[in-house]
Amino acid sequence: MTLVKYKYNDTSKLSEHFKVNEFKCKCGKDHDIIIDNELVPLLEKVRSKLNSKACNIYSGYRCPSHNKKVSKNNATNGYSHSGYAVDCYFLDQNRKRIPSRNVCLALEDLGHKCGIGYRCGGSANSTGNTHIDVKSRKWYGDESISMNESCCISFYDYFGIEKIITGIIAEWQTAMNNSYNCKLVIDNSFGPDSQNQATKYQLYLKNPQFHNDYVLFIQKQLNKLGYTLKEDGYFGSNTSNAVKTYQKSKNLKVDGYVGLNTITAILKEVVEN
Ligand SMILES: [Zn+2]
């Protein structure tokens, strides 16, 4: 995370769909604009996931005095608007406002674990704005009800919606997001982002053992392929040996590491079965 300063009248592009001046402070003074470098890539991801035609930033950067003025009694007070957050809404392809609820769920699907505020800001109508924050803190909240406290750890639970994950790769992506906070889009596709994470986060026998959802996922898949591992999420010697046996059977390098080649082979075989 890096805060970057821009001039007040800067209209240059930050990304394909966002310009610097969309983030400027609403106080009316012509001071600099500060934007965290992770904020715009996240907004692009949400925009794309929602198949949105446009994102309207209702509140972007706030200078300290403006923040003090507008964030009184607001859950988003303090630092989050000092370049780390926006209050915004998205339009669909017919330029209708996408409900904040869908935006919150999209962020959750993206594995976004930082602040998300449902129906925040201004005069929240039935669709509302959404507060999107990249400052690392776990906070999912409903600002139309409670302005100060965290209200849920999952918007799916909060809205009473069952999360539908279809496909083995979606399950793997969810396991990776849970294990490493790697923010993969749950799209059930083993694309470049997924492959990068599979390379970055490898499983192997070590002390203390890996213990996470990724290990559990591997154990479940190997069991589907005929192994009889205890599904406990610990990468111990039994799991390591099963991986080696599996690698040998697929003519892969037998090293007990679950890296890109091994996970690719497992996913492929489970999909085909
Ligand atoms: Zn200002």
Q: Could you please describe the fold and organization of this structure?
A:
There is one protein chain. By secondary structure, the protein is α+β, with helices and mostly antiparallel strands. The protein folds into 2 domains: 3-159, 2-Layer Sandwich (Muramoyl-pentapeptide Carboxypeptidase, domain 2); 168-272, Muramoyl-pentapeptide Carboxypeptidase, domain 1, CATH 1.10.101. It is 34% helix and 12% strand. A 5-stranded mixed β-sheet has the order 3-4-6-5-7. Strands 1-2 form a two-stranded antiparallel sheet. Strand 5 and strand 6 form a beta hairpin. Helix 7 (213-224) packs across helix 9 (260-272). The longest helix is centred in the middle third of the chain and has 13 residues, at 168-180. Zinc ion binds at residues 25, 27, 29, 31, 63, 66.
Keywords:
single chain, alpha+beta, Muramoyl-pentapeptide Carboxypeptidase, domain 2, Muramoyl-pentapeptide Carboxypeptidase, domain 1, 2 domains, two-stranded antiparallel sheet, 9 helices, binds zinc ion
Provide a compact summary of the structure:
This protein has nine helices and seven strands. The chain is of the alpha+beta class. The chain folds into two domains: 3-159, Muramoyl-pentapeptide Carboxypeptidase, domain 2 (2-Layer Sandwich), CATH 3.30.1380.10; 168-272, Orthogonal Bundle (Muramoyl-pentapeptide Carboxypeptidase, domain 1), CATH 1.10.101.
